[in-house]
Amino acid sequence: MSFGVNLCIWDAPFRTAEHLHLFEKVANYGGKVIEIVAEDDAEMDSVMIRRELDASNLSLAVIGIIDSTVDLSSTDTSIRNAGVEKLKYYLNLCEEMGADLLSVTLGFVGGKHLLEGDLRDTRMKHLSDSLRAVGDLAGIAGVRIAYEVLNRYETNLVNTASQAMDLMQIVDHPAIGVHLDCFHMAFEEDDQGDAIRYVGDKLYHLHANASHRGVPGRDLNDWQAISRSLRDIQYSGHLVFESFNRYSWLGPAGHIWRPFADSPDQLAQEGLEFLGQVLG
User: Fold this and answer.
1) For residue range 144-161, what is the model confidence (pLDDT) as tens digits?
2) Is the pLDDT of residue 111 over 80?
3) pTM for this model (two decimals)
4) Environment class of residue 190 by beta-carbon count within 10 Å: exposed (0-12), middle (13-18) or buried (19+)?
5) Three-state DSSP class for 71?
6) Is 29:267 a contact under the CB 8 Å cutoff?
7) CA angle 106-268-62, nearest 5°?
8) The domain containing residue 235 runs over which residues?
């Protein structure tokens, strides 16, 4: 496992000129991977990012934003096609920067109505077709795509590990897997360890987030159970601590209304230290 942090702990959106120095800081904290969110207004210089990754001996994971205009599960063919093109853009960006993991999901896309029966089946099929459409491209690029499972307040389509594996069964592509998040699992799963074991070798990415998005270990998650489950499935992917700066745009979006540490530096460093001790 390679431990790291999402740079949204400090700020968002990512801007190379302002945030490139954080790579060295994460490395000094013992991190081995950084995660960048590729917002539309992010300013990413692929050449400089790749150079700094090499200099700091870091791996890179990228989170792609899929909104309603590029909904991969939409019943509108033109919207789904736009979504597939957005995935291709993200894969090209990953290849340029040297990222080995792209995480995507349908956050705040499906609305707040009940999805069941034929309507749900149709949306799941559209989503699986959209993901599979870029599977071969991802394999050629050496990038694994992980679909993130979100809680009920952020999507009405895939909320649990079991539902994610239903999706994976339909997708049926080796380049496409699951991204679990301990924050979201705290809402939806009966047992986080069992959820991780259920996904097994299709777990391509893990957000090791506290149940309140603060410092892991000072929350309600059962980190010993999480650790055992990761060993059980012999997980070897990235393990990233994600939180948000309440003064960035992600603060209100993530409902972060209070500080979790004296500074973003402290939050990142203490989070990495705990995860290395308990999950390493």
Assistant:
1) 999 999 999 999 999 999
2) no
3) 0.97
4) exposed
5) coil
6) no
7) 35
8) 2-279
